[in-house]
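note to self: the first set is below, dont mix up w the second
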Amino acid sequence: MKIYGAGSLDDVRQCTAMGATGILTNPQGFDQYYEGRMTLKEITEALLEASDLPLFIQVHGESAEAIVERAQQLHALADRVGFKIIADPKGFEAIERLQSEGIQCIATCLFTLPQAAVAAAVGAFGICPFVGRAREAGIDASELLGAIRAAYDRLQQSPEIIAVSLKTVADVDAALRAGADAVGMRWPLFERMMCHPLSEKAELLFAKNWARVKGEDVGYLRRGLDMEGLAE
């Protein structure tokens, strides 16, 4: 199971520090975090500075040729720059051409098993099925991920399944159980994945044990115990 980070430059740094596999981007993030102040080239350069991980920049264009040309320009900045490209006819054509040049591409905004089949046929590095948006459209995202997993398992080589558009830890859990190779998210959800009330409660309950170990300061734990009403 892999985790891809996303979000602001600070999010990217935190995801990188916590063991993310790579960094994903999309135009919503470009708009939200850079607010029209930077070109796509400048954003790519900033992200390359913020992380040493593989970076997937989402690109667009009116034709496969336009997408390929834009991707080639950005890939020239660093070999670890790959691309997210919309799963549509011109996008799949662009993915096939870029992959043939050794440039890794992810087919994104993917909602069907047939789209996943095309992504495999053109040699995409990965696919990004949208979990939250699929659910909003009445699509069973878990069933979709499971079907793609079963189909890809019949291939000798297949794209990496990176589930995105995840809203909650429950979405992450469902995606991984359904067979996704990886999940992609911004730092706040990444951080929430690390937590569970029972884990927090167990740490507090250990305070009385740590207190009996010479030299151990458990003041911060005792404060938690008092708040939870668990102190002896």
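second set (the one i keep forgetting abt)
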Amino acid sequence: MRVVVVEDHALIADLLAAVCERDFGFTVAAARSSGAAGLSAVREHRPDLVLLDISLPDLDGLDLAGTVRRELPAARILVLSSLRDPATLRRVREIGVHGYVDKREQTLPVLREAIRQVAGGGSYFSPVVAEAVQRLARDPHAFHRVLSPYEQTVLGLIGESLSDAEIAARLNIKSATAQSRRRDIMGKLNIHSTPKLIRYAIENGFTRPEHFPRGP
């Protein structure tokens, strides 16, 4: 079985490679530390298994997972992350990856079991995923019930503290349209100030630190 590792922390990448090679006899075809390099490696090596971090320096790992699912549907994908916010964990299930290991709480034996299950055609999801999805299912005011996918995209940009003009430029819409979407989102979430809306976006995973523009 050929494996591609996409993980920007060298220690974790080495651990994943060691487990795959020593415990399972898999071939690690490539280990990459960025999303762009990871996608290039997937396209080049066409692996059977992709071990993927979400928080990458250049791309959202779940966007990368979605691309891999479309271009190489036979590949198995195991996500490893410390993220636990509702939006991220809901996307994990929606995209159709085959497993999720919570870096915060899971142990090395759990990692081995997750790799074994996913590589063998099954699935493995840390309990935190089901817990988050169940909480959202019980909440009649959860973001996925009141906001459209487009509004969720706008909310993520608001969470980056972008102005209406900056959001308009990103989405190729008019500034007045961006302003209107901001008002609509505030009304649907019953949040009545931009600082509180930014906080909501961050706490629920629509915006993460790596999303913020980097200074010069």
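remember for set 2: The radius of gyration is 19 Å.
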